Amino acid sequence: MSAVVVVGAGIVGSSVAYHLARRGVTVTLLEQGPGPATGVTGDSFAWIRSSGGHWPGGAQDLREYVRADYRRLEGELPEVSVRWTGSLSWADSPAQGQRPGPGQFRIGRSDIAALEPNLRDPLTPAIHTPSDAGVEPTAMTHALITAAKAHGAIVLHNTAVTSLQVAGGRVEGVLTSTGLHAAATVVLAAGTNVPTLCVPLAADLAIAASPATLARVTAPPGLVKTIVARPDFEVREVRDGELLLVVPHVEGSAAALAQAAQDALQQLKEAFQGSDQCSLLGYRTARRPMPAHGPVIGYATHDRSVYVAVMHSAITLAPTVGRLIADELVTGRPVPELKRCRPRGH
Q1: In a domain, 162, yes or no
Q2: Per-position DSSP letters for 118-182, written without gaps between them
Q3: 20 to 30 A Cα–Cα from 196, which one of 129, 143, 224, 226?
Q4: Bridge partners of 7?
């Protein structure tokens, strides 16, 4: 097929570029930041779920492929390191209860202690999802881009897209801070920036920017063994000796956010024995794209010159979505797995 420009070098855009380049397509990947995953991807909790959780709209049709596509990527890209730790989660209150979904198990105190021996006085029961995993999203994005380049893709950073280039009623590329980049198809994978670039679809896309704050914490290696999702905090080990901790988001001053991060750290210390020496490395807030009706994936123009790919959770879905989008663009045939993800009216 003809040349493709992919806008946004987060995990979705990088996955699309990799899967296209691997199939011999001429691809240019453009990123406004100084490197890949410098936006919301790099500030993601990166919990890979194939069961449980919220799967709105067409995301429900993609969940069955998540685990296999991550396993496939591990084989194709040795640099991709997925932590298949499983997860433990609790309802907001014991009275509320939780029903296990497919591949999930309700477990009691002894099983919780076996999975998380450092967790003090855990509420029971908990839901154990053995198939859940975590990944270092920045490292994974770098691996996808390195592989895409090895297959011939061009990757340009510090290249902000200002508008689509329209000629004769058709999009023929993008205008950027470094000039025009021509393409037969433009794939918009720039998260919350997509409605700005694709104004006619802005209302239909209905992409909310949901704030999320994450803290990085030093910790004894192995202090947290699974992904722990309690009503009061979520935490996982992202690499030996470093945890990712979800901080309840607060609007307001920098001081209020700093206090929220310290409070979250204190909750972690109260929950896990052996955590006295844990300390904050830093924290950041990102605004995640949250399409109102689930993933928005497909052609945004009837002449098939513009394609959009916006979703939550991008980390979970990126390998699957990259594979399916590449298949759709290369063959010219719609893939049934994306049927419920289409932009409205398309």
Answers
A1: yes
A2: TB-S--S-EEEETT-EEE-HHHHHHHHHHHHHHTT-EEESS--EEEEEEETTEEEEEEETTEEEE
A3: 143
A4: 30, 188
Contact yes or no for 88/229 (Cβ under 8 A): yes
Task: Examine residue 322 and state whether it is found in any structural domain, yes or no.
Answer: yes
The residue range of the domain holding 244 is 87-130+209-289
Q: How far apart are CA 25 and CA 17, in angstroms?
A: 9
Q: Note the residue count of the chain.
A: 346
Question: Do 150 and 126 share a structural domain?
Answer: no
Domain finish residue from 248, 264, 289: 289
Q: Walk along the chain (346 residues) and give the pLDDT tens digit of each residue.
A: 679 999 999 999 999 999 999 999 999 999 999 999 988 898 899 999 988 778 889 999 999 999 999 999 999 998 898 999 999 999 764 444 567 888 999 999 999 999 999 999 888 899 999 999 999 999 999 999 999 999 999 999 999 999 999 888 889 999 998 899 999 999 999 988 888 887 655 555 666 677 889 999 999 999 999 999 998 889 999 999 999 999 987 877 889 889 999 999 999 999 999 999 999 999 988 888 888 889 999 999 888 999 999 998 999 999 999 999 999 999 999 999 999 999 875 6
List Cβ neighbours of 255 (8 Å cut-off, separation of 6 or more): none
Question: Do 280 and 220 fall into the same domain?
Answer: yes
Same-domain pairing of 255 and 336: no
Total number of domains constituting the chain = 2
C-beta atoms surrounding 250 within 10 Å: 16
| CATH number of the domain to which 187 belongs | 3.50.50.60
Residues 66 and 140 occupy one common structural domain? yes
- Asked whether residue 346 is assigned to any structural domain, the reply reads no
Contact 296, 339 (CB under 8 A): no
What phi, psi does 141 have (nearest 5°)?
-65, -40
**Helical segments of the chain, H only:** 11-22, 59-62, 66-76, 109-115, 137-150, 194-197, 202-205, 254-271, 314-331
Same domain as 170, residue 242: no
